Every structure is written in structure tokens, then in C-alpha cells.
């Protein structure tokens, strides 16, 4: 199938599919006129790549995980699990930082509310 059909079947833009290829996440064969052609297997691969992106993984990390799919083995599975654990730890740290930032903003909002109330009281009196 050509790139437009793969895009249609997966709900992924042609531009994204080209990017996946540039990053080594997806492969195609080329016709004599240079058009990309994909197999039906690529539909599942694109869907899998989308799930990894939805989990917050970068294209570089996804490329590190794909050997587990392309060449299943205990070593590749162990490496993929370790890489996913590292990503989970990174996300957990980011969540902690976001909570800290949200809490600081909550404090600023409370200060602002108190200040507004004091202005309102001063203007009323």
C-alpha cells in the first residue's frame, strides 16, 4: 500500500509517517518512481508506535524499544523493560515537579485573593 493509504488506515498523517521513517521506526520499499510502499504489517507497527508516543516516549526511546518487537528474545525484552522503567521514573520525577509548581501557584493565588480582599475592605470603609 502507498503512504496515503497507510495514513488513512492508521489515522496518522503522511507527514508523521515520513518522520517515523526518518527516525528508523518504520520502513518502506520504494517503487521505481520513488513512491513508498508498505505491507499490511506496517498498520500494526504504526498503531504500536502511536501507543508508545501516547505513553510519552520520544522517538529515540521508541527506537530503543523496537528490537523487542522486531527480534523477540529475553535479552531484548529485558532491555525494553529496563528502558520503560527508566522512562516511568523520569515521568514520576516530572509529575513531582509539576505538583510542586502547582502548589506554589496555589500559594500565589491565595496571597492574591487575600490582597484583593484587603483592597475591597479598604475601599468599602
Q: State the end-to-end distance.
A: 76 Å
Sheet with the most strands, sense and barrel status:
2 strands, antiparallel
Q: What structural class do the secondary elements suggest?
A: mainly alpha
Q: Please estimate the helix content.
A: over 70%
Tally the helices: what do you get?
5
Approximate strand percentage? under 5%
Query: Rounded to an integer, what's the Rg over CA atoms?
Result: 24 Å
Anisotropy-based shape: elongated
Order of helices and strands: HHEEHHH
With strands numbered from the N-terminus, the spatial order across the biggest sheet is: 1-2
Question: Which stretches of 5+ consecutive residues score pLDDT under 50?
Answer: none
Number of strands: 2
Q: Averaging pLDDT over every residue, what do you get? A: 93
Descriptive report:
- With 125 residues, this protein is mainly alpha-helical.
- 75% of the residues lie in helices and 3% in strands.
- It is built from five helices and two strands, in the order ααββααα.
- The protein has helices at residues 3-10, 14-22, 41-54, 59-70, 74-124, and strands spanning 29-30, 36-37.
- It has a two-stranded antiparallel sheet with strand order 1-2.
- Strand 1 (29-30) and strand 2 (36-37) form a beta hairpin.
- Helix 4 packs antiparallel against helix 5 (74-124).
- The radius of gyration is 24 Å and the shape is elongated.
- The N and C termini lie far apart (76 Å).
- The model has no long low-confidence stretch (mean pLDDT 93).
Amino acid at each position: 500500500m502507498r503512504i496515503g493509504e497507510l495514513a488513512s488506515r492508521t489515522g496518522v498523517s503522511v507527514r508523521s509517517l515520513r518522520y517515523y521513517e526518518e527516525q528508523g521506526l518504520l520502513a518502506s520499499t520504494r517503487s521505481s518512481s520513488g513512491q513508498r510502499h508498505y505491507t499490511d504489517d506496517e498498520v500494526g507497527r504504526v498503531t504500536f508506535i502511536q501507543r508508545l508516543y501516547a505513553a510519552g516516549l520520544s522517538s529515540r526511546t521508541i527506537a530503543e524499544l523496537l528490537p523487542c518487537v522486531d527480534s523477540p528474545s529475553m535479552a531484548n525484552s529485558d532491555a525494553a523493560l529496563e528502558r520503560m522503567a527508566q522512562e516511568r521514573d523520569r515521568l514520576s520525577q516530572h509529575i513531582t515537579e509539576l505538583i510542586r509548581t502547582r502548589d506554589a501557584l496555589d500559594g500565589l493565588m491565595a496571597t492574591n485573593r487575600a490582597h484583593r480582599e484587603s483592597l475591597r475592605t479598604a475601599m468599602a470603609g
